[in-house]
Amino acid sequence: MGIADIGQGGQATVDRIDGEGDGRRPKASLRFRSSPSPNRGGVCRIPGDVRGIVLHSTEGSLEGALRTFVQQGGVSAHYAIDRDGTVVGIVPEGDVAFHVAAFGNRPALNRRRPEWLVPYDRRFSAVNACTVGIELVGFAHIGFTAAQYASRGAMCAGIALRWGFPPDGAHVAPNGQVGSWRCI
Question: Degrees (nearest 5) of the Cα angle 156, 70, 122?
């Protein structure tokens, strides 16, 4: 499941979201590039498998995060959003990315567990198995740019539309809300 069609100058247009192009909301446009990671579960997720989005902070630069994501046997995410709003595709949405360090159904590892979270199947973190991970480049205590927030909104809306869940606060959560803290 790709997020976009790439146009001239690296511009990408995301899948239509409610209200786009009909006067209520302008068509969303994103800059997109790819930087694949080998750290993924080779599972072909089908509609209904993904039930939410987990937001993370790289706590460093894009280059540092991408170096971490290519280390064999390490962590990954589906997307990273750079300071200028550019979206970097890392793991295809149909595969499981290793973005939340919470395993099993133990409450200590899956704090404030959302109702839609699937049971642990002994292959992947229950959170990773049913979510898409998005990394915002930068430091959480400093904050993020308007371009990052715009791209994050468009990405969350497009992902929710593709996978069939509402893009609301119950389905889009920061890492600390659904799993143990993990810095990359």
Answer: 70
* Span 82-109, pLDDT tens digits: 999 999 999 999 998 888 765 444 444 4
Please state the domain extents for the chain: 33-178
Residues 136-147: pLDDT tens digits? 999 999 999 999
pTM of the entire structure?
0.74
Q: If 0-12 CB within 10 Å is exposed, 13-18 middle and 19+ buried, where does residue 107 land?
A: exposed
In the 3-class helix/strand/coil scheme, how is the chain assigned residue by residue? CCCEEECHHHEEEECCCCCECCCCECCCEEEEEECCCCCEECCCCCCCCCCEEEEEECCECHHHHHHHHCCCCCCCCCEEECCCCCEEECCCCCCEECCCCCCCCCCCCCCCCCCCCCCCCCCCCHHHHCEEEEEECECCCCCCCHHHHHHHHHHHHHHHHHHCCCCCCCCEEEHHHHCCCCCC
Give the class (CATH, top level) of 33-178: alpha beta
- CA distance linking residue 74 with residue 162, whole number of Å: 27
